[in-house]
Every structure is written in C-alpha cells, then in structure tokens.
Design a protein that fits this description.
mainly alpha, 2 domains
Length: 133
C-alpha cells in the first residue's frame, strides 16, 4: 500500500483585480513618498509599505482608498441594519423613523454603543492574558 503524500499548507495570495494591481504597481515615486508619510510614522514599517506599493500588493490602506467615498448615511451614523427589515436610512424631512420606530438620535446612540461594546469585547482578551500571566 503506497503512502499518501502529506498535504503542504501554502498560504495563497488573495486575488486582486488586475487593473488595481497595475494601478498600484505603477505609482510614481513622489506619490509613493506621500502615501508613506500619510500611512505611518514608524520608520521600520516604511520600507515594507514602499515594497507593497511598488509590487502592487494590496494593503488595508489600498482597500480603504478603493471604497471612497463612503456612504453618507453610514458615515453620519444614520443607517441601521439591526434587523432583517433594514437597512433603514434616516433622511431628514423625508424619513424620520426607521421600521422599528427609532429616530436619528436613537439610531446614532445604538450604533455608538455597538461600536464601543465590540471594541471592548475585542480587547478584553488582551486584559485576560495579562491577568493570567
């Protein structure tokens, strides 16, 4: 009985649209320098970021730029997608309440509370590790 070869785990690069890859790799040096200064102050990270821009490797900053401009309702906090009947968008003078009856103030407050709770939950694990140490 022949032995089966062991699987080799290779992390694959995420595919990026060829147009985006070409756009990122053809950045001129002046633009690369400007982006480096705006993306980090850490001198150790700058060579890595420069290499990613020259080789067309997509980073979080590139994805953020590709998603601009943001939705004005989501940016202002006037969008709610808590239930399956949404997303509700508050448009002053036209729509003042969502399906559940929440007005702009309540939707903004719930979104803020949700963001704070999510961030706290994400970072509480770090505190637990410190306590255990």
């Amino acid at each position: 009985m022949a032995e089966e070869p062991k699987p080799v785990l290779i992390r694959e690069r995420l595919d990026v649209c060829e147009l985006d890859r070409a756009r990122m790799s053809l950045l001129n040096p002046v633009l690369i320098g400007q982006k480096l200064e705006s993306r980090t102050i850490d001198e150790n990270a700058k060579p890595i970021l420069e290499m990613t821009m020259k080789e067309g490797i997509e980073t979080v900053w590139d994805r953020f730029e590709m998603q601009q401009p943001p939705c004005r309702y989501c940016e202002s906090g006037l969008s709610c997608s808590r239930c399956t009947m949404g997303p509700c968008r508050i448009i002053p003078l036209h729509r003042i309440r969502g399906v559940c009856g929440a007005d702009a103030d309540l939707i903004v407050a719930r979104n803020l509370l949700d963001t704070i709770a999510t961030g706290s939950a994400a970072h509480s694990d770090h505190g637990r590790d410190i306590v255990e140490t």
